[in-house]
Amino acid sequence: MSHVSLLDAATFAGAHALAIYGALLMVVTGTTWLVARALLPDRGGPAAAPEPLSPVSLLLRFAAGFAFIVGGAYLFAEIAEELHTEQTLGQLDEAFIVAMIEHVPDLALHLFYLITFVGNRETLIALGIAVTVGLLVLRRRGLALGWALAMLGNAALNPTLKQIFERARPVHPTHWLTEDGFSFPSGHSSGSVIAMGMLAYLAVRLLPRRWHVTAWIAAAALAFSVGASRIFLRVHFPSDVLAGFASGAAWLTVSIVSIELARWARRRRSGRQASGVEFTR
Q: Are 165 and 83 in contact (CB under 8 A)?
């Protein structure tokens, strides 16, 4: 596709940004529903004690996690390379933003302004502290540590990436919101993916099975909407948000796989100790 054709496509997409957001939201929630139904069958009833992980189950989880990490890292690297070696991506981002300005009503901007607060630094800090304290009260120290490390890891990773790439923000901010600092990748996008994803994981570990699929659908929809709000409010380019989704998904996968690995190792160690006690008897 020629450069002119790409610019025309970006302009068309910007003029129909709300429709595209609605369509993508349906794709995200639908895909999440299918994957969650396949991996988390809804059997109803109270939450049962988790079953020990079999070697095959552990291998499948690690294979899926590895593929997801590699995919997210590859996507992030491709965006970063394109951003620094070519002018095309920046021009497409700008064409999309400019075309979007005249086609998004104030009512939609007001709704996205409310949604974007979910990914604010202050919101994520308050959420991180509240969930950590709640898990400690429930005496789930392992989950509390995993949650805290997931949140703190992104809090350190995203500013580091921003300083590396030093991309300026869009020059057409709305009157609803302005932001300082660098633009790439979007911290709201990565932070929301990690926070909502970890909350869904905690729901799977702590709530009855009938809530598991719903939790993942709600998490995916909210994280996607927070990222989209940054584009509609014109404080991030589309590629900033896509890179934030990619880095956030990769770190979320690392966090969940690490927690599951620690859980499996602890169960295996406990099983060996129990077998040793039985043998001595």
A: yes
